[in-house]
Amino acid sequence: MSPERTASGIAAEVRAGRVTALEVLEERLRRIDELDPLLKTFLKVHEEDARGQARAVDIRRSRGERLGRLAGVPVALKDNINVRGWETTCGSKILAGFRAPFDASVVERLRAEDAVLVGKTNLDEFAMGSSTENSAFFRTANPWDRGRVPGGSSGGSAAAVAADLVPAALGSDTGGSVRQPAGFCGAVGLKPTYGLVSRRGLVAFASSLDQIGPLTATVEDAALMLSAIGGHDPKDATSSPRPVADYGAALAGGVRGLKIGLPAEYFAEGMDRETEVLVREAVGCLERQGASVVEVSLPHTRYAISSYYILAPSEASSNLARYDGLRYGAPAAAGATLAESCAATRGAGFGPEVKRRIMLGTFALSEGYHEAYYGAAQKARGLIRRDFEDAFSKVDVLATPTSPGPAFRFDEKSEPMAMYLSDIFTITANLAGIPAVSVPAGLTAAGLPVGLQLLADSFREDLLLRAAAALERERPFARCRP
Ligand code: GLN
Q1: Is 453 strand, coil or helix?
Q2: I need a labelling partner for 139 at 20 to 30 A (CA). Which of 103, 127, 150, 474 fits?
């Protein structure tokens, strides 16, 4: 990908004064005008607001002020991240008319680095889903094949980056929602260690699993975005006090001497053949560059789906209680009692998947069942975490497919269970709190991208980015666009 298309390239050009932030933005807005009607990645493009931000960056430069690391870089945000004064819909009807009263901490950090916020991207309602088909508004198409899903729930962000509408976007990842759409769209998607990136201003889905992460076309840009948004936030009680590393510096390290583990459970029978071949080839490419590869076992992986689909809905059922038409949520016609009004609001405002999750979670937490479901799922989560601790005592990173297959067709996974099973390789990182990245491994014969997922121990994003960069150097997939 040519440097003027990447976030790092744009920032360098803008800082050097070879192009203005406004020129960069206008070119992207034209591209969005031309292509977004076909792809529907954006719920809302805030052209005028973005122009104002770009002009402000250009004025600061003309005054000789030092510009930030994302100077003039157009960034799109998943529409569950708050931008002051902009609507936050979460892909749901229930939030109609809600304008965010404050900037999410990640948004404050993007602004501090002189990024230009372009608009809000489509998502599965409240980030629940793997295809963006659960958006209450419309479906987003995969730029490689418009008959297929972009993945989800950050499908709008992934497709916008893959189609080069913006060089970078933010998504949120509770069970794979940054990595899986990145894999399906041929982008780089990183889920940071739990606590590395502030969740303040991200609408909560499952608070013990949610993390905001970047979607970009290149590994260098993922490192740049992570360096910008990461780091301690005193306003998020789960934020880690660790100083944030300069991830860009890690990229050149190469993989000589790096130990890569292949978990047997992630190359199970039944997965797509071409996906497995492409992922193994990508690992082979790292091996030729000096990494060593061994097989490892994560035996409790088999509990991952059931444990996640108890814990995430349980937390969601509690987090989504606030959409009652009083505190949050557009009230439906008033009923005779408070309970009736609340039921009418929630009945009309939430879509079927959100309702399903609330019911699942409420049931799992209910008196008499709590220990059997929620308690058991927590124990399984502990075992999954222990598997990773054991693995990382032997290897530096783990390599797996991001998903069992490439992007599926619209309506192909209409059964909830079929959709849930497609998350099998991504949810373990959230349960364990560890970082993971999806990096393009190559294209299937039908021309669909396949992602390689790399996982590392907590706060070892540097290792992930180093390995991902080594793969990208040998296979510069980023130059290959839909
Ligand atoms: N697909 C998973 C789910 O539906 C993960 C979603 C996410 O990471 N936000 O819960």
Answers
A1: strand
A2: 103
